[in-house]
UniProtKB/TrEMBL annotation:
This is YggT family protein. The lineage of its organism: Bacteria, Pseudomonadati, Pseudomonadota, Betaproteobacteria, Burkholderiales. The keyword Transmembrane applies. Keywords: Membrane, Transmembrane, Transmembrane helix. It comes from Thiobacter aerophilum. The chain crosses the membrane at residues 6-26, 112-130, 163-183.
Length: 200
């Protein structure tokens, strides 16, 4: 019971922090306008880890690699910690097992990114109805625009009804059901093989 409580608390806190790191990465990648109430909070909450990493992991092609690596590494550590607390004998594992956990961490980041995109679509719809002049609208629109723009090229608005949010939600669900699920299974098989048959 105690280990389950620790796993729950660890998973909740660390996953929330990883979500902030991913959000920081996308805020910079998608050039979200400054002056919104969200960016200062995200940056301040993650600076303690991101700023030291930037000294050794420079940006590349406009990508904030330090933040992305931090998110992946935290997800990798979380996966190892949860499995260790669940009783998985990590000391018996080979390098293949740790590589499998690395792939698993990357898949979890992809999954979380898709959930963030889906959440943005829902929030954009709700905020536009409740308070279209909210300062968060600029953030939500900037995070969503690269995806809605691509959808609108294929499916333009019909009678002034924009179908792009619904299409994005459907595509995200399909990606979660097919390639993400397949990659997760591949990672689990790699971990299992690295444990010599004992594992997930």
């Amino acid at each position: 019971m105690l280990s389950q409580a620790v796993i729950f608390l660890l998973d909740t806190v660390v996953t929330a922090f990883i979500a902030l790191l991913l959000l920081r990465f996308y805020l910079q990648l998608l050039r979200v306008p400054q002056g919104n109430p969200l960016t200062p909070f995200v940056v301040t909450a993650t600076n303690f880890l991101v700023l030291p990493l930037r000294r050794v992991i420079p940006g590349l092609w406009g990508l904030d690699l330090a933040t992305l690596v931090a998110a992946w590494f935290m997800q990798w550590l979380l996966a190892l910690a949860v499995e260790a607390l669940s009783g998985l004998p990590l000391a018996r594992g080979s390098g293949l097992m740790y590589l499998g956990f690395g792939l698993w961490a990357a898949v979890e980041l992809l999954r979380m990114s898709l959930y963030l995109l889906m959440l943005v679509q829902v929030m954009l719809f709700v905020v536009s109805l409740v308070n279209p002049f909210s300062p968060f609208m600029a953030v939500l629109e900037a995070l969503s625009r690269p995806f809605t723009r691509q959808v609108r090229r294929v499916i333009p608005p019909i009678a002034n009804v924009d179908l792009s949010p619904m299409v994005i939600l459907i595509v995200c669900q399909l990606v979660l059901m097919l390639p993400v699920a397949w990659l997760e299974q591949a990672a689990k098989e790699m971990i299992h093989a690295g444990m010599g048959g004992f594992g997930l």
